[in-house]
Amino acid sequence: MSIISFAVQDDPPARLDKALSRDVPESASLSRTRIAKLLEAGSITINGAVQTDPKAKIKAGARVDITVEEAVDSHIEPEDIPLEIIYEDDDLIVVNKPAGMVVHPAPGTPSGTLVNALLHHFAGKLSGVGGSKRPGVVHRIDKETTGLLVVAKSDAAHHGLAAQFAAHTAERAYLAVTQGAPEASDPRIRGVRGVSFETGGVLKVTTQLARHKHDRQRQAVLFENGRHAVTRARTIERFGNPHCLALVECRLETGRTHQIRVHMAHVGHGLLGDPTYGGRRKLPAKALSEVSLEAAKTFNRQALHAAVLGFEHPISGEMLRFEADLPDDIAGLLQKLRT
């Protein structure tokens, strides 16, 4: 157990949790979310009196004492699952997630996840995130999507990484195989609400996203009362005559659930193999070779790969950038599409 003590600075925000988040020493690595939980637990005193209301007022000069318990072991079980580790140091780890692996345990998937695998890999060497000795998941990719993920190993790293993802300063680029090729010259796509084109023919999709009203497993495009979402897409390679498939680079400005899958479907170019948003566009038999057509028809997951991840190291300040080659199934698909 440790006690963090400090005084509230001049002109504090109206809410207590915001004021504490602003003035708590940076070395404590306490996020506003963590501070809210500590308030709820009665672990924070203001001028010697316990305070639990995050909306309470506080004056400049007030003395704050925050009691932080030692991190406890996670309830999630470690599992010996192989991992492809791209980079690791004392603060974070970058992994290349395979298709079929869920990132975090949930009621329907209590084991076999990336977090289970990381707990085994760390073997008790975690310093704790949010009061628990568990990996700090900053962002996620879907179960059937492959590619790069960064995970924090401490509160300080988690806080720093989360701030970058919240500010949309982390670089995230994906490679996708889409049905049809999104082109700036297509008058249909220019008429889709939320679509614009930038220099170089880069497609920009700006909408809001929220859970579908009738299917809670899906996301829906909205233009009010949702979460702001921006995706940019650039066609790299086209397949078929006429072009019925394309290799597209998608860059995330925001990172909402299913964002690329939903946005590409919104513009009429859903991902190949996507059972939720891909649609049932029939591939023209004469546009592709028999080998290409069969490969496309039998591809059994969304063709999406998190290929590039860049961010500032939350502790050292060094700029880090990683790239992951396409997985064998997408690479093999592209090879056949080129025949």
Summarize it:
By secondary structure, the chain is an alpha+beta fold.
Can you put this structure into words, describing what you see?
By secondary structure, the protein is an alpha+beta fold. It is built from eight helices and 18 strands. Strands 6, 7, 9, 10, 11, 12, 13, 14, 15, 16, 17 and 18 form a twelve-stranded mixed sheet that branches. Strand 17 and strand 18 form a beta hairpin. The longest helix has 12 residues, at 155-166. It is elongated, with a radius of gyration of 23 Å.
Outline the secondary-structure elements.
Layout (H helix, E strand, L loop, with lengths): L1 E6 L8 H8 L8 H9 L3 E3 L2 E2 L12 E6 L3 E2 L11 E4 L3 E6 L16 H9 L9 E2 L2 E2 L8 E7 L2 H12 L4 E9 L7 H4 L4 E4 L3 E10 L7 E4 L4 E13 L5 E8 L6 H8 L23 H9 L5 E9 L6 E5 L4 H10 L2
Parallel strand pairs: 5-8, 10-17
Antiparallel strand pairs: 1-4, 2-3, 2-4, 6-7, 7-10, 9-10, 11-16, 11-17, 12-13, 13-14, 13-15, 15-16, 17-18
